[in-house]
Design a protein that fits this description.
The chain is α+β, with helices and mostly antiparallel strands. The chain is built from 10 helices and 9 strands. Strand 4 and strand 5 form a beta hairpin. Helix 6 crosses helix 10 and helix 7 runs antiparallel to helix 10. The longest helix has 30 residues. The chain is globular and about 55 Å long.
């Protein structure tokens, strides 16, 4: 296609979620005929179990995970996967000829997918969030994103004007796949346990250590108001996704129903605590200003420790399920 060509955008329905990768991927999967919702996508990919906190509650935490690791779970629920990842930041202060080349490659790949009537997921649409590519015009993407459900305009995004800290990224879903639900469920449980035990690096901590660092950041009044609110909204949603996901699984996997149901309830307790934190610090918070309300900080720290304990119990139960003898399918 010529660079000045236009592809009429595909009609898709945005599957809203704070975790925008989950939203964009669910949107694309549904458009491709996969019967799924945000809970399925978050649970099978593992995103529901992600909790990463920066020492200052930077808003990057919810996207600091191995994007490669999300692919297998999506293959388990109905589509093959193909991912392009540049690996070098392409955002203000970090734009180079190399990152522009990454942008061009991603755009050409996205155009090919769109021409096959397959929407795909891109990182860095308008702000560092994920969106569904549904068309193109000239040298620009046409996307469906969180802006649409807020009634905001979604102007075309020039291929090299994506806001992509961490690197240019495109996630494609080329073909149908079939995986026995038994195997998919077992993989999801393993992902939940592994993600809780992800080792920290630099200023980031995961799982139980992430909860502790969060409380420490609040108590030391170094937690950014906007980042704190965004983290709370994302992780409250993730815990709730996990709660419902394992509740559904308990009905499918009768041999481990008791443990899965208990794990679901523990995630539910964690979700309730995290939802309370999100209510204490509603988004957008105060970007660039530290959280300083002592009464809210004290209550939030108590709630974070309650969530940590509940989620720790859930993960222990899931580890027991993995160790059980699974029926042959």
């Amino acid at each position: 296609m010529e660079m000045n060509a236009t592809m009429v955008p595909m009609k898709v329905e945005w599957a809203q979620a704070w975790l925008s990768w989950v939203a964009a991927t669910t949107t694309c999967l549904r458009a491709l005929g996969v019967d799924c919702d945000q809970i399925d996508v978050a649970g099978y990919s593992g995103y529901a179990f992600h909790l990463c906190v920066d020492a200052k509650l930077c808003p990057s935490g919810p996207t600091v995970l191995s994007w490669d690791s999300l692919c297998e779970g999506i293959r388990n629920i109905g589509r093959s996967t193909n991912m392009y990842y540049g690996g070098q930041c392409h955002c203000e202060g970090f734009i180079t000829d190399l990152t522009r080349a990454h942008c061009h490659t991603a755009f050409e790949l996205a155009k090919a997918e769109v021409l096959m009537e397959r929407p795909c997921v891109i990182w860095g649409a308008y702000v560092p969030e994920f969106a569904a590519v549904t068309g193109f015009t000239g040298d620009s993407y046409i996307v469906e994103s969180f802006r649409g459900c807020m009634g905001q305009e979604q102007p075309p995004i020039r291929f090299d004007e994506v806001n992509a800290p961490g690197g240019v990224y495109l996630f494609m879903l080329p073909d149908k796949t079939e995986t026995p639900v038994h195997n998919a469920d077992r993989h999801a449980i393993s992902r939940a346990v592994a993600m809780w035990n992800t080792p920290g690096f630099a200023t980031y901590r995961y799982g139980a250590d992430g909860y502790k660092l969060w409380a420490e950041a609040l108590q030391a009044k170094r937690a950014d108001g906007g980042g704190n609110a965004y983290n709370a909204a994302c992780y409250a949603e993730g815990r709730r996704f996990a709660n419902v996901f394992f509740g559904r699984m308990a009905k499918r996997q009768e041999f481990a129903a008791e443990k899965l149901d208990l794990a679901s309830k523990r995630y539910g307790h964690a979700a309730e605590a995290m939802e309370h934190v999100a209510m204490l610090f509603p988004f957008p918070g105060g970007w660039g200003q530290p959280v300083a309300d002592d009464a809210k900080i004290d209550l939030a720290c108590k709630l974070l420790m309650e969530a940590q304990e509940a989620e720790s119990q859930a993960v222990s139960l899931l580890a027991e399920v993995i160790a059980m003898e699974w029926p042959k399918q």
